């Protein structure tokens, strides 16, 4: 499938890590070879449903994609979220059983480019240099995705809500290299991500603010002192 010129321009402008080191001409050629297509999703719409066969991997061009799992009682479990440049659906695309075990949905208006993972992993017979570069970029993204999942496990394995909040915010501060943190989650989403309820989260945030550990306004947080000093001694 051949992408339109404006779609190729959109990919280049988004500076997608998968295509790092490739100029627009090579991106256009590769996109055609990889059966690429771009789709738009309105906030709240499903991109891949649980049990749906996953035929392509997705990379977020803009917006946010949430990975959601529902338990047997219908309770929603917010696993991780993907922002611009991050991929999703790769696990089920690699497996022989391609039915997704989770649902991917658009948390806001979102644009996604879908690609054939099989064509990335099995390059053309010419062994083009730019195709090798593409595969290397993919492996980097897969590593980053694994780190996201490890980070989520580390956060939710903390023994209390305060520790979960501080672990999440400390991680964001490290990634953003600042004490002034912008997060993409509203309070309800943040509570779901931390496996808590909204009222408990709001109460604990108010206590952290009262204790002089952090300050916040909507989705902006400021770490006022070293979060490690705010953990109970037995958890440090």
Structural overview:
With 236 residues, the protein is of the alpha+beta class. The protein is 40% helix and 21% strand. The chain has helices spanning 5-14, 24-33, 90-94, 117-121, 129-156, 161-176, 187-193, 198-210, and strands spanning 37-41, 46-48, 57-62, 65-70, 76-82, 87-88, 103-106, 110-115, 180-182, 214-217, 220-223. The strands form 3 sheets. It has a 4-stranded antiparallel beta sheet with strand order 1-8-3-6. Helix 1 crosses helix 2. The protein starts with a helix and ends in a 13-residue tail after the last strand.
The total of helices stands at 8
Low-confidence stretches: 230-236
Given the helix and strand composition, which structural class is it?
A: alpha+beta
Please report the distance between the alpha carbons of the first and last residues. Answer: 53 Å
* Percent of residues in beta strands: 15-25%
> What is the radius of gyration?
20 Å
Helix content: 25-40%
Strand sequence of the main sheet, in spatial order? 1-8-3-6
* Biggest pleated sheet: 4 strands, antiparallel
Helix-strand sequence: HHEEEEEEHEEHHHEHHEE
Q: What is the mean predicted local confidence, pLDDT?
A: 86
β-strand number: 11
Q: Categorize the overall geometry.
A: globular
């Amino acid at each position: 499938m051949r992408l339109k010129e404006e779609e190729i321009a959109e990919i280049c402008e988004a500076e997608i890590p998968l295509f790092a080191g490739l100029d627009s001409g090579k991106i256009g050629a590769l996109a055609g070879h990889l059966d690429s297509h771009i789709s738009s999703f309105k906030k709240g719409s499903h991109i891949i449903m649980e049990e749906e066969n996953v035929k392509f991997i997705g990379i977020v061009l803009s917006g946010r994609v949430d990975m959601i799992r529902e338990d047997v009682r219908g309770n929603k479990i917010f696993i991780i979220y993907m922002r611009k440049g991050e991929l999703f659906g790769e696990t089920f695309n690699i497996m022989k059983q391609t039915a997704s075990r989770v649902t991917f949905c658009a948390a806001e208006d979102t644009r996604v480019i879908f690609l054939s993972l099989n064509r990335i992993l099995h390059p053309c017979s010419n062994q083009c240099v730019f195709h090798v570069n593409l595969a290397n970029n993919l492996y980097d993204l897969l590593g980053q995705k694994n780190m996201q999942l490890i980070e989520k496990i580390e956060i939710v394995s903390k023994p209390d809500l305060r520790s979960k909040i501080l672990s999440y915010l400390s991680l964001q501060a490290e990634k953003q290299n600042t004490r002034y943190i912008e997060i993409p989650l509203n309070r309800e989403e943040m509570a779901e991500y931390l496996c808590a309820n909204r009222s408990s989260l709001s109460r604990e945030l108010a206590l952290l603010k009262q204790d002089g550990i952090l300050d916040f306004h909507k989705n902006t947080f400021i770490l006022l002192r070293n979060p490690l000093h705010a953990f109970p001694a037995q958890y440090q």
